[in-house]
Amino acid sequence: MRKRLLPLILLLIGCTAAAAADQAKPGILYTQPLESVIFRHQDHAQEGSACVVCHTGLFEMEALHVQKNKDYNMDSLYKGKYCGACHNGKKAFAANTQCARCHLGSGVPAPPKDVPPYKESVVLGKGEQSVMFHHEVHTKKSICRSCHPSLFKPGEGTTRIRMADHGGSRFCFGCHSGRGKDAFAWSDCSRCHRKSVPAPRETIHFGEGTKAVPFRHAGHQLKGGCKVCHPRPFAYRKGAAKIDFDDHRNRKACFACHAKKNGSAFYDCNRCHQDKPAVKPGGPDTLKYQTPWKNVYFHHESHAWFSCVSCHPAPFAMKKGKTKMVMSDMLRGKTCGVCHNGTKAFSARECARCHKK
To answer: Into how many domains does the chain fold?
Structure first.
């Protein structure tokens, strides 16, 4: 009899020890819909399930948050909600047939803090531009569902964050916007990027053909850093900026900095525009205006000692032929008559000075 009881006693001791060891594992103690259910992330992760299986609609990222829902009850589980989405007898044991697998009875002591189901530190990006993200630093001021799954979907690998996302409201920049007090601004690059992010070395051309203006970051690294120009007035996307001629006068684009006190940036065109030598008289770029009397030839060279802003975009548009000119307007001080009034320049009434064969 003793020989028969000994194996049984050893088996009971082994089961008791295993149960005690299992109880020692940290977990989350649920008291709803019934008491004493301990959930352990590590037990479910071993089944090959990714975080996204549960944390994209079934459960909030915050522990025990689901217990606030009125429909978090056994009937919902039986109908396939919450735990019942898997515990239906097919994916996992059924919630309505193996109660003791979860419910351990009342009086179960609260377990120690649950082991985080995430890595404490995560590297975002590659190489010199990589960023080390620390969960523990962020969970001191926010909860998991502040970021998951709306901004970052758990279990989907590395999130691709582009330069164009900086300064918006996506990913990290919903908090690190520079507008709030709880998080430092995204423009403080060194707070995230472990190594300094090098500025692009390539030459960027604004415009097309001979009118294109070459831009080099190397000559524009201001004391204020990248935030002086990005994301406004220039987005972090090559080819996105469209610079209009009127921007030269309105302190937009480049002219937020490259402007005189009066807001004009026409003082040194050739510093940027390499295709802007003075137009030679009779050359291919000389403007010819046909009139009922005789032709009028306009030469930029003879007017080049004036700044461009004296004539453009008012009273003359930059596009040839767009400004309508009639003698009656000139004699009243419009178009050419703004200067050719006998005071600044010879009078528009001296016809032969302009009208030639």
So the answer is: 4
CB distance 134 to 120 below 8 Å: yes
Verdict on whether the full-model pTM lies above 0.85: no
Which residues constitute the domain of residue 335? Answer: 287-356
8 A C-beta contact, residue 356 and residue 290: no
- For residue 124, CA distances in Å to 24, 55, 182, 186, 229 come to 34, 21, 22, 15, 25
> Looking at the structure, do residues 91 and 23 belong to the same domain, yes or no?
yes
Q: Same domain, yes or no, for 154 and 93?
A: no
**Is 323 exposed, middle or buried (CB count within 10 Å of its CB: 0-12, 13-18, 19+)?**
middle
Query: Tens digit of pLDDT for each residue in 147-188?
Result: 877 788 766 556 788 877 887 788 888 888 877 677 888 777
Instruction: Find residue 134's DSSP bridge partners.
Output: 121
Examine the domain organization and report whether 50 and 90 are in the same domain. yes
Instruction: Please write the tens of the pLDDT for every residue from 45-75.
Output: 765 567 778 887 888 888 888 999 999 988 8
Residue 148: how many other CB atoms lie within 10 Å: 20
**What ranges in the chain are assigned the alpha helix state H?**
2-24, 41-45, 51-54, 74-78, 135-139, 300-303, 327-331
Yes or no: say if 299 and 286 are a contact pair by the CB < 8 Å rule: yes
End-to-end CA distance of the chain: 135
Ramachandran category for residue 308: left, alpha or beta (phi over 0 → left; psi -120 to 50 → alpha): alpha
* Structural tokens at position 307: 């700044």
Measured CA to CA, the distance from residue 234 to residue 242 in angstroms comes to 9
